[in-house]
Write a structure and sequence with these properties.
There is one protein chain. A hairpin with a 5-residue loop joins strand 1 and strand 2. The protein contains six helices and two strands; from the N terminus they run αααββααα. A two-stranded antiparallel sheet has the order 1-2. The protein has a single domain, classed as Winged helix-like DNA-binding domain superfamily/Winged helix DNA-binding domain (Arc Repressor Mutant, subunit A, Orthogonal Bundle), CATH 1.10.10. By secondary structure, the protein is mainly alpha-helical. It is 56% helix and 5% strand.
């Protein structure tokens, strides 16, 4: 699994929305400026995140975007899957893919890919946006103290 620009930018946007959780709707221009994401691209990512049930959006002068639930209840796995698709590095370990491979019952490498997928899923599911916001605050404080 490789995280593309789509995933990276979407995660940045979600971290910004997690920082501002409980403060109302945030304009996409603000998110784009703070997180260095092209606004037109961000708009498309926010649509995907909204369709996945992770973000709420409202039009108008008081509109914008916000998380659909508390940051502690949104895992990094949900966002990565919404933006990038399945976590599996190869299709033969995806649950929803029919096993077309003639070696699927005897393939020993498939077992390795399954373990990689399971470990990746576990790490991403255990990581939520509240944790990411807290880590970012800690690093920002440490960087400010060091300068």
């Amino acid at each position: 699994m490789k995280i593309s620009t789509k995933g990276e930018y979407g995660i940045r946007a979600m971290i910004e929305l997690a920082h501002r959780y409980g403060q109302g709707y945030v304009q996409s221009a603000e998110i784009a400026a703070v997180r260095d994401v092209p606004e037109n691209y961000l708009y498309q990512l926010l649509i995907t995140l909204r369709k996945a049930g992770l973000v709420r959006s409202r039009r108008g002068p008081q509109g914008g975007h916000q998380l659909s639930r508390p940051p502690r209840r949104i895992s990094l796995a949900e966002v990565v899957i919404a933006l990038e698709g399945p976590l599996a590095p190869v299709t033969c370990v995806q649950d929803e893919v029919v096993q077309d491979c003639v070696f699927c019952d005897t393939c020993v490498v498939r077992d390795v890919w399954q373990r990689v997928t399971d470990a990746t899923r576990q790490i991403l599911e255990e990581t939520n946006f509240e944790q990411l916001v807290e880590r970012e605050r800690e690093r920002q404080s440490a960087a400010a103290a060091a300068s």
